[in-house]
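Subject: Predicted fold for Diacylglycerol kinase, 125 residues

User T.R. writes:
Posting the sequence so we have a shared reference for the thread.
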Amino acid sequence: MRNKTTLKGPARLRAAFWNSLTGLRAIWRSEEAFRLEVRALALSVPLAAWLGQSLVQAVALIGAVLLIVIVEVLNTAIEAVVDRIGPEHHELSGEAKDLGSLAVLLAAILAGMIWLAVLIQRILA
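User M.O. replies:
I've generated the structure tokens; pasting them so everyone works from the same file.
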């Protein structure tokens, strides 16, 4: 059984924050897809401010792209766990990686739908 941390309150939050930064550095170094998606997120902010006709629309546009980044992080975590188990080919390992990839694709489709809907609404307004 894994030892649970004894940190509580603000100390636990600080430790979690530093662990998150460690994860950010690791994924930034190792995942080209993550770097591209973060760049897309950065570009989405001014585009969403211009395209969105309300604050809610702008947040939805940015949030849709942020969701892709979040799912990419989870996909990378799945890949890391599968790779940790062993390098040999196993049907379930491949399936886990494929499902993680599918999750990223579905998040990207959702983002595309949201951006397209807002764009169409702006054109027709």
